[in-house]
Amino acid sequence: MKRIACVAWKSSDASLPGDVCESLLLACGQRFSPLVGFEPSEERSLLLDLTGLAHLFGGEPALASQLLGEIRGLGFTSRMAITDTVGAAWAAVQFRNAECVIVPPGELRPLLFPLPVEALRLPEETLHWLHELGLFQVGQVESLPHAELPSRFGPILLTRLDQAFGRLDEPVQACPPPPQFEARWLADYPLTSPERIDAELERLVHRVAGLLKHCGRGALRVECRLNLERPRSDSPTPSITLGFGLFRPTADAMRLLELLRLQFERARIPSPVTGASVVVTLSESLETRHQATLFESGDEDQREPQHIASLAERLSSRLGRDAVVGVRLRPEAQPELAWHYDPLVGDRRRRRISKKNEDLPPRPVRMLQRPVLLSATAVAPDGPPGRFHFAGRDHTIVRHWGPERIEAGWWRGQPVGRDYFQVETRTGGRYWLFRRLRDGKWFLHGIFE
Amino acid sequence: MHKHSSPARDLAELRRRIARLEGRSRSGRGEAVSSGCEALDHLLPEGGFRRGTLIEWLSAEAAGAATLALIAAQRVCQQGGKLVVLDPRREFCPPAAVRLGIRSEQLLVVHAETTRDNHWAIDQALRSSAVAAVLAWPRKIDDRTFRRWQLAAESGGTLGLLLRPETARSEASWSDVRLAVESLPLAGYAWLHPTPGNSNRFLRIRLLRCGGSTQGRSLEVELDDETHRLCRLEKQRRQLAR
Prior knowledge:
The structure holds two protein chains of two kinds. By secondary structure, chain A is α+β, with helices and mostly antiparallel strands. Chain A has twelve helices and 17 strands. Chain A has a six-stranded antiparallel beta sheet with strand order 12-17-16-15-14-13, with no helix packed on it. A five-stranded mixed beta sheet of chain A has the order 2-3-1-4-5. In chain A, β15 (416-425) and β16 form a beta hairpin. Chain A is flat and about 80 Å long. Chain A starts with a strand and ends with a strand. Chain B has helices at residues 7-21, 38-43, 65-77, 94-99, 115-127, 143-156, 233-241, and strands at 32-33, 49-50, 54-59, 82-86, 107-110, 131-136, 159-165, 177-184, 201-209, 218-223, 230-232. In chain B, the strands form two sheets. Chain B has a nine-stranded mixed beta sheet, sandwiched between helices. Chain B has a two-stranded antiparallel sheet with strand order 1-2. At the A-B interface, α12, β10, β12, β14 and β15 of A face α3, α4, β5, α5 and β8 of B.
């Protein structure tokens, strides 16, 4: 009996290109199974053939929670199911509203029967016919005489039905594994001295860099795992993962080592180290990047590009990839959405940069993350309030400019209507207030520092 | 004196000698760049801010010091290089900087979670020769960190713009120039602008610390809301009276 896992995922960072997401997931899945691919329908789900593998991870529930945890670590939200077939696993992920569904072997009927026919991965047309005939559940279709199905609904329905119930084999189409750049080391006896561990890491990084150079590729994201001594012989191996990203793909061992050391120096290693691995989780051809830079606008990094790369990498390595960002302005009326932050390291391609710098409306240097509700009432019907309280102080407004009316967001289903005023207080301070049009409430949104 | 001596050159030479005597400009490689305000440049001994040094801006909340610092940053960044903004509070609004003429691709924003990480990031940014200026809001700076930043700025040739609360006035400093910025209520200057829609700001800049005799001097400037130019007020008054 086969065991198949299906994982549906969503990236929390909408700007991350789809192929980058997929290669991250693929690399992640390949740590659990040699047969990993994607379900080819519109919602591309990750598929893993786990036949005979679950016991290596301590059973299916343990495997599932490990896999979900790793995917969460990549910044994705995901749901998964483990069943006997690709079709059933896909159906369970899409139509059972649970983070993790594990269906015991041979129990496909109770899973599939109550699901809607949409769970069979059918074309629109076939679904339409089934609905016309009052067939809404998989169970209803499965109970029909199978011999008649192809002539009435075309061959696809019976194929999908047989695939879901395991009567027709549907193998996981394994994606060609991306070139693997990794190096492992197993200690003869556990090490505690940081210098000794560092020396081993240096050797691993040199090996990985050699592999990268050989293939003409550069690392964009690197992960290093240190395996620690087990507290008891029957407990799982604890480990520490260190990871970092790069501004540009590189195969330079010294650069990789410097970034790894930044992390290693800060890591707390509670018990002796029994082994380590260094894996490149995202790489890119060094040649394509060189070509791409020909067409990039010249204004970026004209002043010593290798220095900005090294600064971005050092900062990101210690502070995290999302903490070191570039700015992209967006044509968006709602002030807090008018720009986007992009991490500087660990991405395949540099995204197009917004050029529009002119005609921006006045904005305060300091914009509060969340507008602060003010207990204030307007003196004049169209003007801002006479005074407001902020940061433990009372402010009396003596002048104001505005309003700048902003109405946006209705296409996102979160309409925003605000009248913004720039106000000056008695002491000369400048603040940015708005009135919410919906209920006339006043908020402080920014400070012209 | 030199063969082709002129008053301006003599003056510059004398300034350099005084600076040497005062122990400033050790490396001498940091060229001066305009602060973005001509009148302020005149008060500064080197005719502007020197690359590779730290500038402190002391002010109360909402007084406009960050805007002045960004105007100075824009001048330095004009010749290339990044502006690194240390924004642990996540309150920096990039469009405000872009409106002042800094290109969005020149901005590099860092969100550090702890003060320690933030101070480390300031040090790293100051040290990088790919960076033209660093903008940060450090509240408390211990003496060692401050000194390290000064050396970092010097080795990277970066201009460090530190925005600080007024209470920092009593603290020791390793900055080259320390300024206090005060926002003047428009009410007193309204007669300069009969048009009600005008939202120009009036600021007083006081030189708390810098080499030379101009220390302690102050000037009043008007910040044009559209052009972001800073004009000295006295001059305007004179023009208006004419």
